[in-house]
Amino acid sequence: MARAGLAPSTVELAPTEAPAARWRPPGYWPFVVPALVVVVGVIVFPWAFTLWMSLHEWKVGADPAFVGLSNYARLPTDPRFLDAVWQTLVYTALSVVLPLILGTLAACVFHARFPLRGFLRGVFILPMMATPVAIALVWTMMFHPQLGVLNYLLSLIGIPPQLWVFHPATVIPSLVLVETWQWTPLVMLIVLGGLAALPTEPYESAQIDGASLWQVFRHITLPLVAPFLFVAAMIRMIDAVKSFDIIFAITQGGPGTASETINIYLYSVAFAYYDVGYGSAIAVVFFLLIIALAAALLVVRKRTQGSVE
Amino acid sequence: MTWSGRVNWRWLLKQAALLFAVLVIVSPVILFFVWMLSLSVKYEIDNAAYPPVLIPERFAWKNYLDVLESNRFSTYFLNSLLVTGTATGLALLVGVPAGYGIARMKAAKAAVVILVARITPGLSYLIPLFLLFQWLGLLGTLWPQIIIHLVVTVPIVIWIMIGYFETTPLELEEAAVIDGASRWQVFRYVALPIAKPGIAVAMILAVIFSWNNFVFGIVLAGRETRTLPVAVYNMISFDQLSWGPLAAAALIVTLPVLVLTVFAQRQIVAGLTAGAVKGG
């Protein structure tokens, strides 16, 4: 009965609700729906589930028990977590600054015309596209204190052999070396895009005024590519904070926990100790930390916007 | 005469300085891969020599044969192919229309989800999805890895396709609509053919990042379902201690990506800088 009553009314409604000119087809939603299902399933659901788990005491195999915020309360009292935060910040700062400087220099060179430029640019970006585990494996061999080629190269210029990733004091700088080697090309590509978009007039007048190479770079190029540098710094920061493959494959956070970043510690908590409740809390705080760092970069950008010019 | 001679001399000096700078910049990359190749073709005795040997007297081609002939290699290669192929194929299937829809609805704000996904650490997908796969009883098959690789491939495809469809001209599509084509027909016969270069960029990047992925595999892969990066990692930690075969395996795993990078350099650069500049 209800059905019979409904049917005519919808038929009646259709024309009144959508007069000829106003009628719009279902739009582009059908194009988006399949992707939406996938994104909700593999991206949004994990976010929500992680939040839920972070409020529970849950070891894999046992039943979850609601504990409120106590997983979060545990974080500031966990020395291993605090060390990991510090090591992450050091690792990230170095892995942003060094590729940024070297990548900008490389972009200035690649901006010039020279033979084989296209091919060499292709070669230059190989490190960031190559499989990180394969790269890490070869770097591990190169870092080897007795048989590694790096100590041999150092000996050629009279520097005593180093322990590289095998000593707590040098492990993070050594990993940053790999990260810099890997990701300088990305900064180079972004800055190169910026250089290609530069106007030529300021350079012509600078040349007429007899400005030095450094003056041109400092007062014309740098302010003009600043937006691109900022984008590069942002991307580099996000990727460096999350760096996993290189660290895990080369040191697994060692020696001891000297190179254990938040991401590596998170892995241990979740998949070595199977403490998924606490692990989820770390994941949430980790995510918030990345957002905070991104916001800090935005503030720095706003502050320096006037002063660079 | 003397004046033009001086200019030429300065030009030459500048040119030489430029070439020297180029050499300094690319040499860490070239030396690294040359050394990787060298490690992979040396016998143990040459790899342990001091001072190091760059080109050995006897080449250890058997390092490569050892890797290729080991009974599991073909399994792992097939696993990598299946995971990357399926995850990329599915991502294109749902991601290309989605990029089109979002671009035409001018709903780029919807892509904020993609940005947040880009920021989120991979491990925070791994914990919930691992538990889900365990609960569904899927562990031990390739499906968990195929599904979780969508976390990598789908955002790349959607992001690049939004950017691409925003730049393709609307006139042709409008003309097709006037001729009575449906939205689907406009997409299928007008927008899609024009978008082929964009799809190529999205596909290449999705393939590379999926092929390279390591973190999902170390948790989700069992002995029979390892992809190549995970297999190489396991070689380091358990089976293999001699450097030659290890370096050979590393080179075999990453060779497809290196070749793709050199040949599809233009697409990769376009995709990365587009994604980067917009994605920041």
TrEMBL record, chain A:
Coiled coil: none annotated. It comes from Methylobacterium frigidaeris. It is found in: Cell membrane. The keyword Transmembrane applies. One of its GO terms (cellular component) is plasma membrane. PANTHER family: GLUCOSE IMPORT SYSTEM PERMEASE PROTEIN GLCT, TREHALOSE TRANSPORT SYSTEM PERMEASE PROTEIN SUGA. This is Melibiose/raffinose/stachyose import permease protein MelD. CDD domains: TM_PBP2. The keyword Transmembrane applies. Belongs to the binding-protein-dependent transport system permease family. Keywords: Membrane, Transmembrane, Transmembrane helix, Transport. Residues 85-299 form the ABC transmembrane type-1 domain. It is a multi-pass membrane protein. PROSITE patterns: ABC_TM1. InterPro entries: MetI-like, MetI-like_sf, Sugar_ABC_transporter. The chain crosses the membrane at residues 28-49, 89-112, 118-142, 181-199, 220-238, 276-300. GO terms for biological process: transmembrane transport. It holds the Pfam family BPD_transp_1.
Automatic annotation (TrEMBL), chain B:
Gene3D superfamilies: MetI-like. The chain crosses the membrane at residues 12-37, 76-100, 112-136, 142-165, 241-263. InterPro entries: BP-dep_ABC_trans_perm, MetI-like, MetI-like_sf. GO terms for cellular component: plasma membrane. Residues 77-264 form the ABC transmembrane type-1 domain. Its main location: membrane. It comes from the Bacteria. Pfam families: BPD_transp_1. Keywords: Cell membrane, Membrane, Transmembrane, Transmembrane helix, Transport. It is a multi-pass membrane protein. GO terms for biological process: transmembrane transport. It is found in: Cell membrane. Belongs to the binding-protein-dependent transport system permease family. This is Trehalose transport system permease protein SugB. It comes from Methylobacterium frigidaeris.
